[in-house]
Q: What sequence folds into this?
């Protein structure tokens, strides 16, 4: 398993992994060859699709990853930075977060977190198709009321690390919560792209989790319309409404 | 229960749908005694606000009696007579605490959709597309209301539904539009659009100390109603509005101008045609910002343009040069209904204003599709239509025959 570099890495302007570049470039070249054997519109379509893929592979930019807003670091890990302001004092936010057992209450992909010692914890996360992945993590920095940083132990199946920072927001607006995560998905950015297809791409997930935390702490619950009355009958309108109402639509 | 359902662009119908239920402990169910069709419902009807889905229950102006409350509802009780403000406040976030309830951080479940469209997400709104939460609306016999303690507002028994119903939206909306004009003694306020919101803007502008209010529309009945409130009126089909406004203000221009029209303005000339064509595509331009253009051009230097009119997406050819070089202030927003309720209820009680003067039509909910048609095309001199969910069929039935849909 790939070991992570410290969480200070610069975001690469290239968002496609080397593997993706090879796959996409190869497919693109294939399309161009295929296009050359055809005529008319088909030829034009296949060739231009192929050309786009080859050039994006050459530039290290994946159109899909750009669309999915997947960012990777120079060592091919995924990096996520998100912030939210929550109307509670810093001490309260810090205390809530420091008790890692609380994290699954707002992090939808987590099944459980168990603190085993002062610094070591065991994390269980949901994975596609009803499976689970788990790993151990250590707290690498703990500055009460300011910052908590953690990192998965060597050899984890999903190497990851992150930190959360708390800062008093101006004019009594509560606390600014800033989260930064770096992780290496099992299949690199390609894997993150596939995960995104199932609505589990990390950047969106973190954003959604932070909003859930805000609503949980400010109001006590998340608003919902699930189960309300409507005049929907067909599967099509049901599906369309669900698409709008799933909260992840972008 | 019976409810008015959006069935596609320009199609609404009355359907029998399941009764609403308490879904969260902070919910309350309201038996709707009166509900109204708002001008903004017409934007939804016409499909210019994206993210409407077949089956959505419309309606964001409604009041009634609380018939059920969730376990965490403390201030509101079964039997209370309440009005339901159209924007949903969580009651806890920074915006709600500042009284900016239409900007609530927490009440829109579909915040991501709104953020994609607008950058940040404002509050959830009942019956008002999925961008603002996808909440079922109140043009129905019952409605589920959320965060009941922070939203439902108890009203006294001695006032009628007709006097109270418009506290849910258009009265506060007109009032906030006037307040946003930053009126000083001696000021002239020009109001584009004499529909329900325009009427309340005119009346509120006088309450807030305006010396002269100039009302602009093309329908005689709406101009008549504006004159009754003390406004000078202009028919834009018969007069050159810009020149006339100059004449009425000693050549200076109005101190503030209100766009109480919004995204489906009746444009004249080539520009009006161009907007209409682009808007029909729903992609090239989502607005027909004719009134906004006129408001910006007409406003005096250093004046204020107040926009209660609803816009949803992107508009073209807005005279930004005029806005910038004349040093105008632009004030807009969905209405922070909650913060005006005590004040405006007192105005109604004291007889300063009778909101029911704008009502021209009263119809049973069963005839709501017809009411939408009359209101949209301004047939029968329609200004405001109030619906009674319980007229005609006095019994509440789950298997009522489905009345026909009226083509809009």
A:
């Amino acid at each position: 398993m790939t070991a992570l570099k410290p969480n200070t890495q610069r975001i690469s302007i290239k968002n496609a992994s080397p593997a993706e570049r090879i796959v996409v470039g190869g497919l693109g070249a294939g399309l161009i060859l295929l296009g050359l054997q055809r005529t008319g519109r088909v030829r034009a379509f296949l060739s231009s699709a192929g050309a786009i893929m080859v050039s994006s592979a050459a530039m290290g930019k994946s159109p899909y990853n750009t669309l999915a807003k997947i960012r990777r670091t120079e060592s091919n890990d995924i990096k996520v930075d998100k912030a939210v302001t929550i109307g509670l004092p810093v001490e309260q936010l810090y205390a809530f977060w420091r008790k890692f057992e609380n994290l699954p209450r707002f992090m939808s992909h987590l099944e459980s977190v168990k603190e085993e010692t002062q610094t070591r914890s065991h994390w269980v996360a949901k994975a596609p198709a009803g499976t689970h992945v788990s790993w151990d993590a250590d707290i690498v920095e703990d500055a009460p009321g300011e910052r908590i940083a953690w990192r998965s132990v060597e050899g984890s199946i999903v190497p990851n690390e992150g930190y959360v920072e708390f800062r008093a927001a101006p004019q009594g607006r509560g606390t600014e919560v800033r989260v930064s995560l770096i992780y290496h998905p099992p299949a690199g950015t390609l894997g993150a792209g596939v995960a995104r297809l199932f609505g589990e791409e990390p950047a969106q997930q973190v954003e959604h989790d932070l909003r859930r935390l805000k609503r949980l702490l400010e109001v006590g619950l998340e608003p919902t319309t699930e189960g309300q009355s409507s005049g929907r009958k067909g599967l099509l309108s049901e599906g369309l409404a669900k698409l709008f109402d799933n909260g992840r639509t972008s | 229960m019976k409810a008015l359902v959006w069935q596609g662009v320009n199609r609404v119908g009355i359907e029998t749908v399941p009764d609403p239920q308490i879904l969260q402990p902070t919910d309350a169910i309201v038996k709707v005694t009166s509900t109204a069709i708002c001008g903004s419902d017409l934007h939804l009807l016409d499909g210019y606000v994206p993210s409407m889905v077949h089956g959505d229950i419309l309606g964001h102006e409604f009041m009634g009696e609380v018939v059920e409350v969730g376990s965490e509802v403390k201030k509101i009780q079964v039997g209370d007579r309440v009005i339901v403000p159209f924007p949903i406040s969580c009651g806890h976030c920074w915006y709600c605490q500042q009284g900016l309830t239409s900007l609530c951080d927490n009440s829109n479940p579909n915040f991501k959709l709104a953020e994609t469209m607008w950058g940040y997400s404002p509050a959830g709104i009942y019956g008002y597309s999925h961008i603002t939460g996808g909440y079922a609306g109140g043009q129905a016999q019952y409605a589920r209301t959320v965060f009941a303690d922070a939203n439902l507002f108890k009203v006294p028994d001695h006032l009628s539904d007709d006097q109270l119903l418009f506290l849910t939206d258009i009265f506060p909306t007109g009032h906030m539009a006037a307040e946003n004009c930053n009126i000083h003694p001696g000021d002239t306020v020009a109001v584009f659009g004499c529909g329900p919101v325009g009427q309340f803007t005119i009346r509120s502008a006088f309450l807030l100390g305006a010396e002269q209010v100039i009302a602009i529309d093309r329908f005689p009945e709406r101009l008549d109603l504006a004159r009754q409130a003390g406004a000078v009126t202009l028919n834009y089909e018969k007069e050159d509005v810009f020149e006339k406004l100059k004449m009425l203000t000693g050549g200076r221009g109005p101190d503030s101008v209100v766009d109480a029209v919004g995204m489906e303005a009746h444009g004249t000339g080539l520009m009006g045609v161009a907007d209409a064509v682009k808007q029909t595509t729903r992609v090239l331009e989502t607005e027909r910002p004719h009134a906004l253009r006129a408001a910006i051009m007409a406003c005096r230097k250093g004046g204020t343009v107040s926009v209660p009119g609803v816009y949803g997406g992107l508009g073209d050819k807005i005279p930004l040069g005029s806005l910038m070089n004349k040093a105008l202030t632009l004030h807009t927003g969905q209405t922070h209904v909650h913060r005006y309720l005590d004040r405006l209820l007192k105005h109604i009680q004291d007889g300063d204003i009778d909101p029911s003067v704008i009502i021209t039509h009263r119809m049973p909910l069963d005839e709501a599709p017809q009411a939408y048609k009359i209101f949209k095309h301004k047939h029968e001199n329609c200004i405001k239509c109030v619906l009674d969910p319980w007229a005609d069929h006095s019994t509440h039935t789950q298997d009522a025959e489905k009345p026909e849909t009226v083509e809009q």
User: Anything to note?
Assistant: The CA atoms of residues 146 and 166 of chain A lie 5 Å apart.
